[in-house]
Amino acid sequence: MLGCLCFALLLCTISVPATAESHSEPPLVALASSFRTLWPELMQAYRSETGEIEPRTSFASSGLLTTQIRHGAPFELYLSADQSTVQQLATLGKTHDAGVTLATGAISLVWRTATQTPAQANVGKALPQSGLQVMIGKLEKSEPFKLTIPNPRHAPYGIAAKQALDSAGLWPLPAGYLLSAENAAQTLQFALTGAVDYALVPDTLVMQLPPELQKMPLEPGSYEPVIHQMVLLNPARTGAQTLYEWLQGESAASILSRYGLTPIS
Hints:
Elements: H1 2-13, E1 14-15, E2 28-32, H2 39-50, E3 56-60, H3 62-70, E4 77-80, H4 83-91, E5 100-105, E6 107-112, H5 118-121, H6 130-140, E7 147-150, H7 156-167, E8 178-181, H8 184-193, E9 198-202, E10 213-217, E11 226-232, H9 238-246, H10 250-258, E12 262-263
Parallel strand pairs: 2-3, 2-4, 7-8, 7-9
Antiparallel strand pairs: 1-3, 4-11, 5-11, 5-12, 6-9, 6-10
Helix pairs in contact: 1-3, 2-10
């Protein structure tokens, strides 16, 4: 039953580039959802520099993708936001090797312009988690608000968000205040649609926000860095291996940096 569910989810999330013909069989890449906004720019540079076909992709939380791979999903390359998932797959013999660390990621608090801003709630204060203090004030006054984070059970950025909230004395939140998103990208979607007042979102997804949203980075010391790991899966064809090598180069590192990631040299 679980295997069927995983494959059903896989089929729903795979995207195929419009320019790719079916007979060309581009490689299939699994990506943590925090890569969603930067991936098009990476692929534009990749195609320009190598002349290779853009791969098919599937975006989801690292935990869900790992489950799919364990149950036989035919991915050839995996970009995870959780190095422990890569280690798990390596132990199971699902990977070509131990993989490489691409970069570390950070998170920001995002809120709607109409919502009271952290700056308004903390005039004259310089607190490590100042962006979260506005929620502490609301809790003390029993004022309602809605916060979303990626689900910590299977999303690495959710674990980081939970750690930051705990550092600020906000975890656990009372019932009704927290909305768990399926993955990192959905937290931003909730903020964009106005479903929540605040969202803790990976920096990769908030480099270009619409005017109705604002952001404030969280103090890095309030949570463990999110380590993005990349690994070839068995069996990976030449196209996946070419992409794997290119993603370790200077062009890819430059793009990752522009989207808030810190590449590992």
